[in-house]
Amino acid sequence: MEQKPPPELFEIARALARQLAREDFEKEQLEASKQITPKRTSSDVLRERNNVRQVAEYWGVSPDTIRRLVDGGKLDAIRIGSVVRITREHVLAYEAANSTVLQAKKDKAHADAFRTALNDPFEQGREIARQARIRASQKGEAK
Fold first, then answer.
1. With CB atoms 3.0 to 4.6 Å apart as the test, which of 5, 30, 41, 44 could cross-link to 9 if both were Cys?
2. What is the DSSP string of 38-83?
């Protein structure tokens, strides 16, 4: 005849399973929080004046890319001899001017306004007149 295990054994097994599940859950939560809030490094923060390497680390690009932007006049910088310093304002201005999100919003706003304008006959006439003025001014500049 087979003996049944005592009921206390089931309770102990259940409590152990709950404890293991709780520990796994807490471990997953900890891992998830590490992914959401990464450790802050020095490359996350721009100083008032930065060298090429610091800006490259901040953007996650190579120093050569930063030098090309500076040499091409696309990114403003301060040159003192061969030393190049890039201010926080220069970096933020470049980001604002080259943000695809902002450009997409501007393009969408322009397209929406244009579509709305073309639904109104009065606005259609104004748009035709504006286009004619642009063509006339371009012909005047070409002469």
1. 5
2. PPP-GGGS--SEE-HHHHHHHHTS-HHHHHHHHHTTSS--EEETTE
Q: Are 58 and 86 in the same domain?
A: yes
pLDDT band at 6 (very low <50, low <70, confident <90, very high): confident
Closest listed residue to residue 51, CA positions, set 77, 25, 71: 77
Does pTM top 0.85 for this prediction?
no
Q: What's the Rg (C-alpha) of the chain?
A: 32
Answer yes or no: are the C-beta atoms of 63 and 52 closer than 8 Å.
yes
Range of the domain at 65: 42-97
Residue 78: inside a domain: yes
Residues 87 and 111 in one domain: no
CB 51 within 8 A of CB 66: no
pLDDT, one tens digit per residue, over 109-133 is 666 666 665 566 777 777 778 888 8
